[in-house]
Amino acid sequence: MKIVLGQISPVIGDFTGNLASMQATLREFPDADLVIFPELAVTGYPPRDLLLNRDFRHKAAGALEELQAWSDVPAFVVGSIAARAAEHGRDLYNSAFLIARGRIVAVQHKVLLPTYDVFDEDRYFQPGPQPQVIDFGGRRIALSICEDLWQGPSDLPPRHGSSPLSGLVGQRTDLLVNISASPFSADKQATRERLLRHWAAALGCPAVLVNQVGGNDELVFDGGSLAVATDGHLLGRARAFAEDALLVDTQGGVARTEPYPAAGGERLHAALTLGIRDYARRCGFYRAVLGLSGGIDSAVTAALAVDALGAEAVVGLAMPSAVSSSHSIEDANDLGNRLGIEVHVLRLNDLVAEAGRTLGPIYQPGTGGVADENVQARLRGLLLMAYSNYTGALLLTTGNKSELAVGYCTIYGDMCGGLAVISDVYKTEVYELARWINRDREMIPGRSLHKAPSAELRSGQFD
Q1: What are 287-330's pLDDT values in tens digits?
Q2: Catalytic residue selected from 59, 65, 66, 146
Q3: Which of 6, 196, 319, 357 is deepest in the core (most CB within 10 A)?
């Protein structure tokens, strides 16, 4: 069976664009037996409270009708929402539609609705009935949606009582299809592949998983769609962190198999640059700005922004105060030269002095401790936001997960910004990223890598 893994990057609410991406893939493979697209590919994932909007639902229904009008393309599986008429429970399903020759041949509703971590599907959807094997084109196909696959090997942490796929064991099944919108985390791809192999063996048939790719706000989807044979060997794997369309023959040899990025800096870099690029593009930003301290966090964030958007689209502001070290400006300028970005030096001395005069009736400047220190951080936030407002550039914050986890940051200061690029990256991983960025040549200055971290809000301060 010739199957195409249609790994597209749906945009939430862009029905026209999402359908155009699907149609382009279908036109590219006119002789395929089946083309498979990701979970909720019509609406984009996660649509969240847009699902409560009547107009959004109406457009989703209209898009599904348009899909049915495509009678001159191969059969395909696509994810969208389905209305449910009932007095009790939710009035929507998260569904997989099998469409062929201008009509919906079969529908499978998602059974297991994740409500942990970043997921809140039970808020919007009703669980579907147990999956059934579908007779189509002389073959027996089982459709499943993302979480329905995630109950398998006994040593994996159980998220639900039982797997909906277990009811198919013992039935004749020729193909297992899983459509997914599974966000990236560091080790998830290996678990996806293991689960797919488990169910291919359990059902005695080839299995395919098609995952969406792209950045939607704080979520990054890594793609990595794949197909495995009954015995578990890999039939093909699509690219990671990029759109792809991969033709796989379940009865033939191994198709194109793209390597998944290695753990550590390479994998984090791929995820974060995709997240920056898609967030900026989908929100209408063409430039980015960030504060440069000469330290490792801002250096790594700047390098990621350059790789995502291009050096010409990134601007750095270095904002020293009277307690800043000389090397903070030297290293910020050195970084700018290495990355090829524009750097402006805006000195805070006069602003800090004026703030002190204004605060004079409240307390004596220089005796306020943390209050004095945070005046500097908040003045930097003011200047960065002013630049962002004036130019329309997206302000990137530079705090890492280790700092944010313990509150080592300043509200209305270094927390100002529209996208917190490394907020889910531990400090140790920041160094790992820096070493990977410097793998071929030194893009991040060596001194930024090796000097002791410091907020430089008072003399002699170290993190």
Answers
A1: 999 999 999 999 999 999 999 999 999 999 999 988 777 788 99
A2: 146
A3: 6
